[in-house]
């Protein structure tokens, strides 16, 4: 799934699908039958692939291009200018690095990657045999993923789970014997407020300790994003639903939940690698409080003594 941070910078430039990315014969590709929110998973996939074929990629995902070449889908319907591809790559790299840092500190951990889509984070990030990695998404997404990405990783404790995260049953099947990292890139903003807060609450109540990494939108940017008609998300019919203006409100969801770190998208390390006009636009947005805090990458910890070391 995807959240778009620079909707105001959108253009109708078609993505580089037929040329730089290349395509297999139509008969050899896997048909994509996703709509609405599930279809948005193709946006970050396209962004990662477009970034990977640039002269100086930000993320340099070595797998996204190959996945796109296996899909029977009209990617020209999803606008992906350089500004958006760079923004997707920057966000994904941020979560990759946070994941690596968590695993360095917790070599015996569980990684729970919710709404994994067609992301190859489990191959980009280094992790050893003492880590348990679980990718999870809706059944129709998992069915597609099984056809274009590995369903097992030799020598690794890896599982691919099909489930609806808004329900309770799946969480009862996840082992709770280790610290857990829950990665939810581009997910929560699409959920109804009650589903987003309910998911966070259930995660904290299920596991003894760990972290949750996700991005949040404030109400101003959420509203603006839903009004855009020329950005990729609008082409899927999906709408953003959960807005967070004050990150302290998330701490109120459960007494064990603590904000560890918050990074504004427009000020995130790596912004200087984006196209020059995007950098200028981001700099201008930093002077407008409602847009400066429009999208934030956040790390929340949960344990009886989780320290509060940052705010945003």
Could you characterize what this model shows?
With 312 residues, this protein is α/β, with parallel strands linked by helices. It is 34% helix and 16% strand. It has 12 helices and 9 strands. The strands form 2 sheets. The chain has a 7-stranded mixed β-sheet with strand order 5-4-3-6-7-9-8. α2 (42-52) packs across α4. The longest helix is centred in the first third of the chain and has 24 residues, at 82-105. The two termini are 24 Å apart. The model is unreliable at 2-19 and 307-312 (pLDDT under 50).
Top keywords for this entry?
312 residues; alpha/beta; 7-stranded mixed sheet; two-stranded parallel sheet; disordered N terminus; disordered C terminus; transferase; methyltransferase activity; methyltransferase
């Amino acid at each position: 799934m995807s959240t778009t941070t620079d909707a105001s910078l959108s253009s109708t430039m078609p993505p580089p699908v037929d040329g730089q990315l290349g395509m297999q014969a139509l008969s050899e590709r896997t048909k994509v039958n996703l709509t609405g929110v599930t279809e948005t998973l193709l946006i970050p996939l396209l962004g990662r692939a477009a970034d990977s074929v640039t002269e100086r990629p930000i993320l340099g995902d070595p797998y996204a291009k190959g996945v796109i070449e296996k899909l029977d889908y009209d990617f020209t319907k999803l606008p992906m200018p350089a500004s958006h591809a760079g923004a997707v790559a920057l966000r994904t790299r941020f979560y990759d690095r946070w994941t690596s840092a968590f695993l360095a500190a917790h070599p015996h951990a569980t990684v729970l990657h919710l709404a994994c889509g067609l992301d190859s984070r489990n191959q980009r990030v280094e992790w050893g045999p003492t880590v348990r990695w679980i990718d999870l998404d809706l059944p129709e997404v998992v069915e597609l993923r099984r056809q274009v990405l590995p369903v097992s990783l030799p020598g690794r404790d890896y599982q691919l789970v099909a489930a609806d995260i808004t329900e309770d049953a799946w969480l009862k099947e996840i082992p709770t014997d280790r610290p857990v990292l829950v990665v939810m890139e581009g997910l929560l903003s699409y959920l109804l407020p009650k589903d987003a807060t309910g998911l966070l609450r259930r995660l904290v109540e299920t596991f003894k300790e760990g972290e949750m990494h996700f991005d949040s939108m404030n109400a101003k940017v959420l509203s603006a994003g839903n009004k855009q008609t020329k950005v990729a998300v609008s082409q899927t019919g999906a709408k953003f639903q959960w807005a967070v203006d004050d990150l302290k409100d998330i701490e109120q969801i459960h007494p064990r939940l603590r904000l560890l770190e918050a990074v504004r998208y427009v000020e995130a390390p790596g912004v200087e690698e984006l196209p020059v006009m995007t950098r200028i636009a981001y700099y201008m947005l930093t002077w407008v409080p409602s847009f400066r805090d429009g999208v934030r990458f956040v790390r929340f910890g949960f344990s009886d003594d989780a320290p509060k070391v940052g705010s945003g």
